[in-house]
């Protein structure tokens, strides 16, 4: 699930921690959300899959095809693991093209194993305990699957602003067709579309700098790999449904329509 624009606000707090060593190869981070009241959360695409415990259901949340609204229940806290971009298909055990955008109950994919994890999660009284249950669940899953790491390596390489798909394929020792097949299976979109998502995610990481007047939108667009600020504007509207300026104002707490 995409990282929120602001990790702290008057309504919630979001914190990340380093995952356990046993799952670090496929898990990018463990996180906790202090929720407060029930409300919809705007989630931007980042190419990753999160395993999310919201106090009621353990779900796999996919965000690669565009912005989505995820309903947060009223709870003291939520906890999750963010799988590395490119690890989703292998860990979940199905082509990511078959996973619907948004939240899919993990019991629909892993049945008894997921139901057992939900039972243990329901008994947790702290986010740390819940993260430990989630890490044990993924570690158990990894004993049943073989990971070649190609899609994770491909996503990492495609995340570079100057990356070209033909060069990435050559570096990984596969054809461009093979690269497309691996990335579509493990991420849900092809390499070109993944590059667009990763470039947009680089922009999101710089929204705070623009909001604090430490950088201009034009500078950030260039740094993120866009041709120009207009290119950033088009892609931002396509992937988030709003303009770069509106996202900057949203970070600053001034939700002005654009």
TrEMBL record:
Record-annotated membrane-spanning stretches: none
Record's keyword annotation contains DNA-binding: yes
Pfam families per the UniProt record, alphabetical: DUF6597, HTH_18
Keyword Transcription regulation: yes
Molecular-function GO terms, alphabetical: DNA-binding transcription factor activity; sequence-specific DNA binding
Record-linked Gene3D superfamilies: Homeodomain-like
Keywords noted in UniProt: DNA-binding, Transcription, Transcription regulation
Residues in coiled coil: none
Stretches assigned to the HTH araC/xylS-type domain: 148-250
PROSITE patterns in UniProt: HTH_ARAC_FAMILY_2
PANTHER family reported in the protein's UniProt record: BLL1074 PROTEIN, HTH-TYPE TRANSCRIPTIONAL ACTIVATOR RHAS-RELATED
Name of the protein in question: AraC family transcriptional regulator
């Amino acid at each position: 699930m995409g990282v929120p624009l602001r990790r702290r606000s008057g309504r919630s707090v979001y914190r990340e921690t380093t995952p356990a060593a046993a799952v670090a190869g496929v898990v990018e981070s463990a996180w906790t959300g202090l929720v407060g009241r029930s409300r919809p959360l705007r989630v931007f695409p980042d190419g990753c899959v999160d395993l999310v415990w919201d106090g009621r259901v353990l779900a796999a949340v996919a965000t690669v095809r565009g912005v989505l609204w995820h309903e947060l229940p009223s709870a003291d806290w939520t906890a999750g693991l963010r799988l590395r971009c490119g690890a989703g298909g292998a860990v979940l055990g199905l082509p990511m093209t078959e996973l619907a955008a948004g939240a899919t109950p993990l019991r629909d994919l892993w049945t008894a194993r997921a139901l057992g994890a939900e039972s243990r999660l329901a008994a947790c009284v702290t986010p740390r305990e819940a993260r430990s249950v989630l890490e044990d669940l993924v570690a158990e899953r990894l004993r049943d699957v073989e990971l070649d790491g190609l899609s994770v390596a491909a996503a990492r390489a495609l995340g570079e602003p100057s990356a070209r798909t033909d060069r990435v394929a050559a570096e990984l020792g596969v054809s461009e067709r093979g690269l497309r097949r691996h990335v579509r299976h493990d991420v849900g979109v092809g390499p070109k579309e993944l590059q667009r998502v990763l470039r947009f995610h680089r922009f999101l990481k710089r929204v705070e700098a623009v909001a604090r007047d430490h950088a201009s939108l034009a500078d950030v667009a260039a740094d993120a790999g866009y041709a120009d600020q207009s290119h950033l504007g088009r892609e931002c509207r396509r992937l988030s449904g709003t303009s770069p300026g509106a996202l900057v104002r949203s970070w600053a707490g001034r939700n002005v329509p654009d």
